[in-house]
Design a protein that fits this description.
The chain has one domain (2-93): Serine Threonine Protein Phosphatase 5, Tetratricopeptide repeat (Alpha Horseshoe), CATH 1.25.40. The chain is built from 5 helices and no strands. It has helices at residues 2-14, 18-31, 38-54, 59-75, 80-93.
Length: 95
């Protein structure tokens, strides 16, 4: 279920419909357990951060979610590219 929600949220963000992505990604994040895959949770957090920021719904929370995702990505050596992407996003949006 979470994979489908993540994919749907991604499609909405890429289609420039961030407001539509927010409730889908909120649901997916709510279903993701703290004990689940941390990288999947970080992917959800970062995608939700993008959607929240781009839809101008809650930019403060968007920055916080992106920072949380970055910590998780940085802790996993296989996620260096994702950590760099979040760093770049934060450099552009967290002022």
């Amino acid at each position: 279920m979470n994979d489908a929600l993540l994919l749907l949220g991604l499609v909405e963000v890429q289609a420039k419909h961030p407001a539509r992505a927010v409730p889908v990604l909120e649901r997916a994040l709510g279903l993701a357990t703290k004990d689940g895959d941390p990288v999947e949770r970080a992917q959800l957090q970062y995608l939700l951060a993008e959607a929240l920021f781009d839809s101008r719904q809650d930019r403060v929370r968007a920055i916080a979610l992106a920072r949380e995702a970055r910590v998780i990505f940085a802790a996993d050596s296989g996620q260096a590219e994702n950590a760099a992407e979040v760093d770049s996003w934060l450099a552009r949006h967290a002022r």
